[in-house]
Amino acid sequence: MVYRRRMPTANAKGSALLGEEEVRKVAKLARLELAPGEVVRMTAELSAIVGYVQKLAELDTTDIPPTAHVRLARVALRPDEPQAGLSHDDALAEAPRVSHDGFAVPAFVDD
Amino acid sequence: MQAWLTRPISELAAAVGRGEVSAEEIARASLAAITTKDPSLGAFLTVSAELALEQARAIDARRARGEKLGKLAGVPIGLKDALCTRGVPTTSGSKILTRDGRGWLPPYDATVVARLKAADAILPGKCNMDEFAMGSSTENSAFSPTRNPWDETRSPGGSSGGSAVAVAARMTPGALGSDTGGSIRQPAAFTNVVGVKPTYGRVSRFGLVAFASSLDQIGPFAADVRGAARILEVIAGHDERDATCLAEPVGAYEAACDKNPRGIRVGVPEEYFAEGLEAEVAESVRAAIEELGRAGCVIRPIKLPHTAYAVATYYVLATAEASSNLARFDGVRFGLRVEPPRGELAAMYGQTRDTGFGDEVKRRIMLGTYVLSAGYYDAYYLKAQKVRTLIRRDFERAFTEVDLIAAPTSPVPPFRLGERMKDPLSMYLADVYTLPASLAGLPALSLPCAPTPKRADRPPLPVGLQLMAAPLDEERLFTVAAAFEATSPARSLELPLG
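The joint structure predicted for all components is written out below.
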């Protein structure tokens, strides 16, 4: 993982922080097949929002620990006892397509 | 019969318990109110009339047998459509949970739904919301916007706008919503009702469609403070099916409504009365705070210096969590599936999600994916988590000096439908006063204070007073809120509705 790149900044002309190519890359990661028009609009909107959140860079957070979750108590675990889960029929009841008693999906090749 | 729906929840449940009115009569009154009022308001996505009447008849039968009824006997409660209801369509306001013209049918009830049923509440239907609770106006619903009953050209706020309107228009005396960054408090403020976001972890989220798991919390709406307190007592408490749900005993919230607020120290943060706050909202909230002083509270100025960073922090963290939570909507197991003719799995995922999600949801998934992606994680996600610590510490420091914090719920009164939809950032900035308590996991509520004065361009509009407390100090919130409500100028307001 690369965790070192600094925040991107707008160039002197104040043009978009994100380009369309980057938006397409993020869309692929997010499994969204955006239409071409959506890519253009999303690039402008995301640039505006990303520009706004750069405000965070104003603060010095050296030595400040991150808060991932407000810690009020330790996570309460339930007793480790077997219980009935969803029935097979209940689990499949809302499936878009069922085959061989399971969720059917299009053929895929793992790449 | 609809007059019963204007009675406080505690009185309604008592009347049903004594047999002055049957649960079935109340259920019919609620269903009739929905039939008459909802076509113009759009607060409900699903009305489950038969189920509501069955529940009501079962309650009446138990009373006839001499059984003691629950705390919400015969009280109709609207449910935000993000809450799973076994056998009743649940869409979370999204087309991706809709197939062949109907919503997804969950195989189980959310814990809060099961607890409402066990307390003998009646559940007439599912309330409209911004898709996946992403929005502050209920205009992001994939089905229709909800209108504000105080002025139908305006938004009721969001994302739990349908739940707020169900209560404001007296279709159901209570409702449940969920609050990730203000989605209960802001619509409560916009519609002149009481809305409570409990402490993070106070209420089980088992069966709530997840948006941002480090922030989401379920809470009640009611016309009065005591009603909201009673609903919270019913739904709060440990649930072994939600590991983030706290085991601490549930407070006596309703009893807290009768306590004297004398001596409770109330802090007023200067950062919440800064630029961007509409003058008429400021005036109403300042008058409410003076009233708290007359009721015996000790009013003190305080500072919450990192308030201005809450919006940026929230929109990084909440979208990051949402991008992960919403990965489950892939067309495989439930909801919508778009399968290309020469289908490949990846194309099915991509097209299902592009077709099924609305613009705001896609925007947030994209932003969340971006801030989590290699190269940006440190600069955005980790940075925002650190700023979250600073915001949390602001509150920790403040709560060494005061018991509660009082502020406006929203910087502006209800805005016009469409007004903020063109500019997503302007919609985000409207959440500036509700986000900090969410980021810090604090309990907070909104209750009506004096509406804005009538102007040539708009009728009087509701204003919310927000009270925030230290973790698990809901009781003090209810004590001060109930004391204010007893003298509030907003209490006697009648909606411009039948």
